[in-house]
Design a protein that fits this description.
By secondary structure, the protein is an alpha+beta fold. Helices cover 44% and strands 16% of the residues. The chain contains 8 helices and 3 strands; from the N terminus they run E-H-E-E-H-H-H-H-H-H-H. The protein has a 3-stranded antiparallel β-sheet with strand order 1-3-2, covered by helices on one side. Helix 2 crosses helix 4. The longest helix is centred in the middle third of the chain and has 21 residues.
Protein backbone atom coordinates (compact mmCIF):
# COMPACT_ATOMS: atom_id res chain seq x y z
CA UNK A 1 0.00 0.00 0.00
CA UNK A 2 1.43 3.34 -1.00
CA UNK A 3 0.34 6.56 0.56
CA UNK A 4 -0.53 9.59 -1.47
CA UNK A 5 -1.51 13.19 -0.79
CA UNK A 6 -4.21 15.42 -2.20
CA UNK A 7 -4.41 19.13 -1.42
CA UNK A 8 -7.47 21.35 -1.38
CA UNK A 9 -7.86 25.12 -1.10
CA UNK A 10 -11.32 26.07 0.12
CA UNK A 11 -12.19 29.78 0.07
CA UNK A 12 -14.14 31.22 2.97
CA UNK A 13 -16.49 33.03 0.58
CA UNK A 14 -18.56 30.66 -1.56
CA UNK A 15 -16.94 27.38 -0.41
CA UNK A 16 -19.79 25.10 -1.54
CA UNK A 17 -18.26 23.71 -4.74
CA UNK A 18 -14.84 23.10 -3.15
CA UNK A 19 -16.39 21.61 -0.01
CA UNK A 20 -18.40 19.18 -2.14
CA UNK A 21 -15.25 18.16 -4.03
CA UNK A 22 -13.40 17.56 -0.72
CA UNK A 23 -16.28 15.58 0.79
CA UNK A 24 -16.66 13.46 -2.36
CA UNK A 25 -12.93 12.69 -2.27
CA UNK A 26 -13.04 11.79 1.45
CA UNK A 27 -16.00 9.43 0.93
CA UNK A 28 -14.34 7.63 -1.96
CA UNK A 29 -10.86 7.01 -0.51
CA UNK A 30 -9.29 5.32 2.45
CA UNK A 31 -8.22 8.40 4.35
CA UNK A 32 -5.24 8.06 6.68
CA UNK A 33 -4.85 11.65 7.94
CA UNK A 34 -6.37 15.07 7.33
CA UNK A 35 -4.61 18.30 8.22
CA UNK A 36 -6.21 21.69 7.82
CA UNK A 37 -4.88 25.18 8.27
CA UNK A 38 -6.57 28.53 7.92
CA UNK A 39 -4.80 31.25 5.92
CA UNK A 40 -6.19 34.54 7.22
CA UNK A 41 -4.30 36.67 4.65
CA UNK A 42 -6.02 35.05 1.66
CA UNK A 43 -9.16 33.86 3.54
CA UNK A 44 -9.08 30.17 2.66
CA UNK A 45 -8.64 26.78 4.27
CA UNK A 46 -5.72 24.65 3.14
CA UNK A 47 -6.53 20.96 3.54
CA UNK A 48 -4.00 18.14 3.09
CA UNK A 49 -5.36 14.61 2.84
CA UNK A 50 -3.11 11.57 3.12
CA UNK A 51 -4.79 8.49 1.64
CA UNK A 52 -4.12 4.92 0.52
CA UNK A 53 -3.64 4.32 -3.19
CA UNK A 54 -6.03 3.09 -5.87
CA UNK A 55 -8.71 0.73 -4.52
CA UNK A 56 -9.31 2.18 -1.06
CA UNK A 57 -11.28 -0.75 0.35
CA UNK A 58 -9.12 -3.58 -1.01
CA UNK A 59 -6.39 -3.20 1.60
CA UNK A 60 -8.31 -1.48 4.34
CA UNK A 61 -8.28 -3.51 7.53
CA UNK A 62 -11.58 -3.78 9.38
CA UNK A 63 -11.95 -1.04 11.95
CA UNK A 64 -11.43 -2.03 15.59
CA UNK A 65 -11.55 -5.72 14.81
CA UNK A 66 -8.99 -8.07 16.25
CA UNK A 67 -8.36 -11.59 15.14
CA UNK A 68 -10.03 -14.12 17.37
CA UNK A 69 -7.68 -16.20 19.48
CA UNK A 70 -8.54 -19.82 20.13
CA UNK A 71 -7.54 -20.24 23.75
CA UNK A 72 -8.35 -23.97 23.70
CA UNK A 73 -5.52 -24.92 21.33
CA UNK A 74 -3.33 -27.47 23.05
CA UNK A 75 -5.82 -28.12 25.86
CA UNK A 76 -6.99 -31.56 26.86
CA UNK A 77 -10.72 -32.28 26.75
CA UNK A 78 -10.86 -31.89 30.53
CA UNK A 79 -9.14 -28.49 30.34
CA UNK A 80 -11.50 -27.38 27.55
CA UNK A 81 -14.49 -28.34 29.71
CA UNK A 82 -13.08 -26.34 32.64
CA UNK A 83 -12.41 -23.37 30.36
CA UNK A 84 -16.02 -23.39 29.09
CA UNK A 85 -17.32 -23.81 32.64
CA UNK A 86 -15.22 -20.84 33.78
CA UNK A 87 -16.44 -18.72 30.84
CA UNK A 88 -20.06 -19.51 31.75
CA UNK A 89 -19.41 -18.63 35.39
CA UNK A 90 -17.74 -15.38 34.32
CA UNK A 91 -20.66 -14.54 32.01
CA UNK A 92 -23.18 -15.15 34.83
CA UNK A 93 -21.17 -13.00 37.27
CA UNK A 94 -20.76 -10.20 34.73
CA UNK A 95 -24.50 -10.16 34.06
CA UNK A 96 -25.37 -10.21 37.76
CA UNK A 97 -22.94 -7.41 38.58
CA UNK A 98 -23.46 -5.37 35.44
CA UNK A 99 -19.81 -5.28 34.44
CA UNK A 100 -17.98 -6.38 31.28
CA UNK A 101 -16.85 -10.00 31.49
CA UNK A 102 -13.19 -9.15 30.89
CA UNK A 103 -13.13 -7.13 34.11
CA UNK A 104 -13.76 -10.31 36.06
CA UNK A 105 -11.16 -12.42 34.25
CA UNK A 106 -9.79 -12.23 30.71
CA UNK A 107 -9.92 -15.23 28.39
CA UNK A 108 -6.17 -15.52 28.76
CA UNK A 109 -6.47 -15.74 32.56
CA UNK A 110 -9.31 -18.27 32.30
CA UNK A 111 -7.23 -20.42 29.96
CA UNK A 112 -4.39 -20.43 32.50
CA UNK A 113 -6.84 -21.36 35.25
CA UNK A 114 -8.21 -24.18 33.07
CA UNK A 115 -4.74 -25.75 32.98
CA UNK A 116 -4.64 -25.92 36.78
CA UNK A 117 -6.19 -29.23 37.90
CA UNK A 118 -7.07 -28.01 41.40
CA UNK A 119 -7.96 -24.40 42.00
CA UNK A 120 -7.27 -22.94 45.39
CA UNK A 121 -6.31 -19.53 46.67
CA UNK A 122 -2.59 -20.30 46.37
CA UNK A 123 -2.65 -21.58 42.77
CA UNK A 124 -4.79 -18.67 41.59
CA UNK A 125 -2.64 -16.15 43.43
CA UNK A 126 0.28 -17.23 41.22
CA UNK A 127 -1.51 -16.37 37.95
CA UNK A 128 0.03 -13.24 36.45
CA UNK A 129 -2.43 -10.38 36.20
CA UNK A 130 -4.93 -11.46 38.83
CA UNK A 131 -4.80 -8.72 41.42
CA UNK A 132 -5.67 -9.43 45.06
CA UNK A 133 -8.88 -7.41 44.72
CA UNK A 134 -10.13 -9.61 41.86
CA UNK A 135 -8.93 -12.67 43.73
CA UNK A 136 -11.10 -11.69 46.69
CA UNK A 137 -14.06 -10.51 44.62
CA UNK A 138 -14.42 -13.23 42.02
CA UNK A 139 -12.27 -16.30 42.30
CA UNK A 140 -14.42 -17.96 44.96
CA UNK A 141 -17.17 -18.37 42.37
CA UNK A 142 -14.86 -20.59 40.34
CA UNK A 143 -14.28 -23.04 43.22
CA UNK A 144 -17.03 -25.56 43.20
CA UNK A 145 -17.07 -29.29 43.33
CA UNK A 146 -19.47 -32.01 44.34
CA UNK A 147 -17.85 -32.10 47.80
CA UNK A 148 -18.48 -28.36 48.29
CA UNK A 149 -22.10 -28.71 47.24
CA UNK A 150 -22.62 -31.58 49.68
CA UNK A 151 -21.03 -29.68 52.55
CA UNK A 152 -23.34 -26.72 51.99
CA UNK A 153 -20.47 -24.34 52.68
CA UNK A 154 -20.18 -21.35 50.40
CA UNK A 155 -17.16 -21.41 48.12
CA UNK A 156 -15.77 -18.26 49.78
CA UNK A 157 -15.18 -20.27 52.97
CA UNK A 158 -12.86 -22.57 51.03
CA UNK A 159 -11.10 -19.58 49.44
CA UNK A 160 -10.32 -18.07 52.81
CA UNK A 161 -9.13 -21.36 54.24
CA UNK A 162 -7.12 -22.14 51.11
CA UNK A 163 -8.83 -25.56 50.91
CA UNK A 164 -8.79 -26.88 47.34
CA UNK A 165 -12.18 -27.42 45.78
Amino acid sequence: MTMQFKFFAIPVCSPEQDEEELNKFLRSHRVLTVERHFNPEKAYWAVAVEYADQNPTAEAPPLHRREKTDFTIGMTEEEKERFEKYKNTRRRLATERGVPAYLIFTNDELSILAHVPVLNAETVRNVKGIAPSRLNDYVAFFFNSTEDEKSGLPDAVHLQSGKPA
